[in-house]
Amino acid sequence: MCHPNRVGSLPVPGSYEVKTAVNLKYREYSPESSGPSKRVAIITDIYGCNEFYQSFATYFTTHGWTSYLMDLFSDLGELKEITREAAFERRHKLRDGETVDRLEQFLKINEIDAVIGFCIGGNFVFELARRNVKPKLVAYYPFPAGLPNEDGLTPPIEYVQKLEKPVTALVGDSDDSSGRETIAELARISDSNPALDVHVYAKSGHGFLAHLDSDDEQLKQNAEDALAVNLQVISA
User: pTM to 2 decimals?
Assistant: First the structure.
């Protein structure tokens, strides 16, 4: 599921500072150029701030952004092993509602311009859209049908029809983790709600940004296009 490994097509992870705000840890990556820059917060999947996300955060610094890589899982302990099962075991200790409350505060305090979320982070992005936060919003392969949690959030599929805050979702039509039928339903809803911008990539599944390194030209093109759309949306 999602991104346990680094993608070679993204930059080598850069240096960062570890900081804390509203009881949330994050890693701040600054662009090489001096002067003011826009700020993007990145919400990882259940694997946390691994090398994939360090590279992804660094990618935006090469475009002049300051990246805030949110470290939601470190206080829940290190992964026993880099497996889906271990990551989900740790993930279930996270309180989703409380986490989004803190994220909402974080965005205001740090004057964040854009938020990008992956997987569970994509669900958090939808919830932030429901709360009409100010930053621009992008969700990679979220779970529109929701995820179980003791402090659970309303499944996005139940409210996306009524969203007024623009949000962009980047999904694959072959995503068996999020559910192909659910992804198709999300795309259908987007046809009647202009605030919901859904890009569906043929043949791509969950975690398809990893195909930036693929030998399959279509899968690679899908990943490259999703990355370009992402940058265009938050930079507009």
Answer: 0.95
